[in-house]
Specification:
The complex is a heterodimer of chains A (about 140) and B (about 170). With about 140 residues, chain A is of the alpha+beta class. Chain A is built from 3 helices and 8 strands, in the order H-H-E-E-E-E-H-E-E-E-E. In chain A, helix 1 packs antiparallel against helix 3. Chain A is globular. Chain B is of the alpha+beta class and about 170 residues long. Chain B has a single domain, classed as Roll (Thiol Ester Dehydrase, Chain A), CATH 3.10.129. Chain B is about 30% helix and about 30% strand. Chain B contains 4 helices and 8 strands; from the N terminus they run ααββββααββββ. The chains are: A alpha+beta (about 140), B alpha+beta (about 170). The interface between A and B is large, with 39 and 41 residues. Strand 5 of chain A pairs antiparallel with strand 5 of chain B. Chain B: This is Acyl-coenzyme A thioesterase PaaI, contains HGG motif.
Chain lengths: ~140, ~170
C-alpha cells in the first residue's frame, strides 16, 4: 500500500508538463517527504547581470515538492491543490548550480496538509530559500 | 510664464514602450514564461499567453500553481522596476540607448513572497497587475492579483517584500 501511494505520487509528478519544462527530477520520495532537483538553466535566470535563477522558478520547484510530499503522506489525499505558499529568499542561488528542494508534510487534518520546505544549492549548509505551505486534501482526483 | 511644449505623442509612446520592453524582455525567465506587458500610461498589465507547458495538473487540467506564483512575482518586480525608472524616463535622465543595449537598471530583489490561491487556473491566458503599496528607500511592499476570464474572480493574489537596488530611490 505504501509503495503504491509513493509510486502514484512519483508518476503524478513525472507527468506534470511544467515539471518537465523545468527538468525537475525526483531524487527521493516517501512517507510525507520528497526531494526534487531543478538543474540550472540560462532560461530560468531572473537577473541577467548576476545569473541568479528567478524566484518564480524556485516557487514552482517548492510548490511541486510540497505537493509531492503531501501525496506521499500515509494519510494521502487522492489529489491535492496548493492553498497558500510563503517563500523567504535567504540568498541568491549560485549561478550554474542545481537547486534541490526538500519538503516535509509535517501535519495533516482531514482537510489540510501543512508543509515546510527548504531549497539548497551545492553549499548545503546555507539554504537558498525556505517555504511553508498549506495544501488541500481532495477526497477524489 | 509658459510651460515647455510637450513632446509629440509618438515620441512619448515610443520612449515608454522601448523602456518597458527593455525592462521586461531583458529577463530570460520572463521570456521562458512568455509574459508580455500591456501599458496604459504608467499602468501595466502582464499577459501570460497559454501554453501546454504551463500545466501543473494534467487531469483537470490546471495551470501549475508555481507558474501562477511566478506570474505574480514577475508582475510585481517589473511593476516596481517600472515605478523606479518612470521619473527618470519622463525627465529624459534615463538613456534609451543604454536600455536598448541591455544596460538595465538593477531590479529589486525579492525578500519574501506569499501567494494565496483562490481558484484553479484554467488552460488559457492569464493576466496580472501589481500595486506598489509602499515604496521606501530600502524596502518596498507590493500586492498583486492574477485573473483570467473575469477580472472580479481572481485566481490568486500575493503580497511580497522587496529590497530596492542601491543608488536608486
Amino acid at each position: 500500500m505504501t509503495s503504491d501511494r509513493i509510486a502514484h505520487a512519483r508518476s503524478f509528478i513525472d507527468q506534470i508538463p511544467q515539471a518537465r519544462a523545468l527538468g525537475l527530477e525526483i531524487l527521493s520520495i516517501g512517507e510525507g517527504r520528497a526531494e526534487i532537483r531543478m538543474p540550472w538553466s540560462a532560461d530560468l535566470v531572473g537577473d541577467p547581470e548576476t545569473g541568479v535563477i528567478h524566484g518564480g522558478a524556485v516557487s514552482t520547484l517548492m510548490d511541486t515538492c510540497g505537493g509531492a510530499a503531501t501525496l506521499a503522506h500515509p494519510a494521502a489525499p487522492a489529489a491535492t491543490a496548493t492553498m497558500s505558499l510563503r517563500i523567504d529568499y535567504l540568498r541568491g542561488a549560485t549561478p550554474g548550480q542545481a537547486i534541490t528542494a526538500q519538503a516535509e508534510c509535517h501535519h495533516v487534518t482531514r482537510s489540510v496538509a501543512f508543509v515546510r520546505a527548504v531549497a539548497l544549492d551545492e553549499d548545503t549548509r546555507r539554504p537558498v530559500a525556505t517555504a511553508t505551505g498549506t495544501f488541500t486534501m481532495e477526497p477524489s482526483a | 510664464m509658459s510651460r515647455p511644449r510637450p513632446d509629440p505623442v509618438q515620441v512619448v509612446k515610443q520612449r515608454r514602450d522601448t523602456a518597458l520592453r527593455a525592462l521586461a524582455s531583458g529577463v530570460p525567465y520572463v521570456r521562458f514564461l512568455d509574459i508580455n506587458f500591456d501599458r496604459r500610461g504608467d499602468e501595466l498589465t502582464a499577459v501570460m499567453s497559454y501554453d501546454d507547458k504551463l500545466i501543473g495538473n494534467p487531469h483537470l487540467p490546471a495551470l501549475h500553481g508555481g507558474v501562477t506564483a511566478a506570474l505574480l512575482e514577475v508582475t510585481s518586480i517589473i511593476t516596481l522596476g517600472w515605478t523606479v525608472i518612470w521619473e527618470d524616463l519622463e525627465s529624459g535622465a534615463l538613456s534609451l540607448d543604454a536600455l536598448e543595449a541591455g544596460r538595465l537598471p538593477r531590479l529589486p530583489k525579492t525578500i519574501d513572497f506569499t501567494v494565496d490561491y483562490l481558484r484553479s487556473g484554467l488552460p488559457r491566458d492569464a493576466y496580472a497587475r501589481a500595486r506598489v503599496t509602499r515604496q521606501g528607500r530600502r524596502y518596498a511592499s507590493v500586492h498583486a492579483e492574477a485573473w483570467q476570464d473575469n477580472r472580479a474572480r481572481p485566481i490568486a493574489q500575493a503580497v511580497a517584500h522587496f529590497l530596492m537596488p542601491r543608488g536608486q530611490t
